[in-house]
Amino acid sequence: MRAIYLSFLFVFTAILSGKAQNCDCKTSLNEFAEKYKQTISYKQQTKDRKVEEAYTAKLNVLLAEVDSNTTHWECFIKITDLKDVIRDEHSRVRGTGISDTINIKNSIFYKNLPRYQGDLNALKTELNQKPFEDIEGVYYSEGSTFGVVKDQDKYLGILLKTQMDHWEPGMQFFELIPSLGDKFRISFIKSDFSLFASSRAERVVNGRFVFYGIYKDKTQPYHYNAPESDSLFYYKPLNKKVGYMRIATFSWANDNVAVANKFIDDIFPNLEVNHLIIDLRNNGGGTDQIGKPLRKAIKKYAKRNNIYVLVNGKSGSNAEQTTHFIGELKNGTVLGDRSMGVIAYGLNYGDLIIIGDNCYSFYLSDLKFNEFYEFESRGVPVDVSLNNNEDWIEQTLKYIENQ
Question: Rounded distance, CA 224 to CA 336, Å?
Fold first, then answer.
C-alpha cells in the first residue's frame, strides 16, 4: 500500500491549470458521480442497496443546488459531499487550483475564493472571549492568525492576519464539518492556491487542530507528535527492562524497504528487553514490504515479551494495520490517541482520474482490506489514552511500571 501520509498538504501533487474556474459544476458533478463508481470502495459498499440509494439521492440533491454561478470552491465542497457517502480515505477529491500567481488577483479564480463578509475586528473580539476548550476561537500558525467561527452546522477558518503572498485578511482558508465519531472533515485551500483538498482525519484536542496544526496557545504543553530524528528507523534501550523503537514510515521511497528490513533483521533477534515500545506516531503508512516483515518479527517477540505501540491521529494506513495487529496480541497494548482512519483501502497502481478539463481529480483505490472496514474514516481506538501535558514515552514507562 502506498504511503498516504496526509499531511495531505504534501502528498497530493497539484495539477496546475488556470482553467479550473471555467468548470461547469453540474457537468463536473455528473462526471464525478460516474467515474467514482470505478473505485473498489464504491463497488464494495454499494452491495448494500441503502448505500447506493443514498449516493444517488445525494447526487440529485446536489445537482438541484448548483447553477452557472456556483464557484469552483463551492463545487469542490459539493463533490466532496457526494464522495463522502462512500467511506474511502485513500480516494479523496481534489480541486485544481491556479498556476498563474503573478496575475492571480485579476483572475476569476481568485475573485471567487470564499471570504468573510462581516467585520473582522468585531469577529476577533468575539472569538477572543470564547472558552479555551471551545472549537471557536483565535488560532495561530507560523506567520498567520485565524479566526474559527461557527456558521450553522460547520466552522469557517477565516484569515485575520498573514505574511503569505496574495492572501488577505477576511479570506477563508478552510471549513470544518462534523464527521464520523469525534472527527471532522477539514476542506482547505492550499497556501499557494494550487489545489483544494480535504481530509476526514481532523480532530481538535486541547486547543489544537491535530491534522492541520494550528493552535490557540503555543505555550501550552503539547506532547503529541513523535520526537524528531534524522533516522526513520532506530532503536535504543530506555532501561534494563524497556526498549524504544521508532518506525517513522512504511514508505517504499528512497530505498526505505531495504533499510527497514535490514533494521528489523538486525534488531529483533538481539533484543534483550522484556518490554518493547514501538512508536508509530505520525507514520502515514506505506508498503507491506515493510509492514509484513515487521509484524512477523513483532509476533515472534510478543510470544514471551510485552509490546506497546504508540499511535496518534497522524498514524495512517499500514501503520494503522500494524497498530491493530499489535492490539490483538495477548501481550500487546495500544497507547496514545485514535489513529487517522485511512486503513481499509489502498492504492496499488494509484491511477489518477481527471474530471473535465483538469477541474477535479481523485486517485482510484484498487486494494481492499475488509477486516478493517469498521475503522475506515474513524480510526483504530487505543487501549490506553495518553494526555498531551506529559511526554508519551514517559507516560508509557509509568504504565509499564504499574502493571
Answer: 8
* Residue-level pLDDT at 22: 60
Q: Residue 308 in contact with residue 397, Cβ under 8 Å?
A: no
Q: Establish how many alpha carbons lie within 13 A of residue 335's alpha carbon, considering only the half-sphere containing its beta carbon.
A: 24
Number of H helices, E strands in the chain: 11, 19
Q: How far apart are CA 5 and CA 344, in angstroms?
A: 15
Dihedral, CA of residue 299, residue 303, residue 308 and residue 311, to nearest 10: 20
The answer to whether 357 touches 202, Cβ cutoff 8 Å, is no
Q: Please give the DSSP secondary-structure letter assigned to residue 389.
A: T
Residue found by looking up cell 521511497 in the block: 253
Q: Please report the pLDDT score of residue 2 as a whole number.
A: 41
Between CA 173 and CA 184, with CA 178 as vertex, the angle to 5 degrees is 60
Residue-level pLDDT at 6: 32
pTM over 0.85: yes
Q: What is the pLDDT of residue 78?
A: 98
- C-alpha cell at position 318: 499500514
**∠ CA(357), CA(361), CA(364), 5° rounding?**
130
Show the cell assigned to 309. 505501540
175 and 184 in contact (C-beta within 8 Å)? no
Which stretches of 22-112 are assigned E, i.e. beta strand? 94-96
Closest to 97 (Cα-Cα) out of 125, 73, 121, 64? 73
d(CA 77, CA 87): 16
**Residue whose C-alpha cell reads 494550528 in the numeric block:** 214
* Residue 59 pLDDT class (50, 70, 90 cuts): very high
d(C-alpha 249, C-alpha 282), whole Å: 8
Question: Cell 498531551 identifies what position?
Answer: 388
Quote the CA–CA distance of 276 and 296 in Å, as a whole number: 15
Phi, psi angle pair for 233, to nearest 5° = -135, 120
Q: Name the β-bridge partners of 149.
A: 156
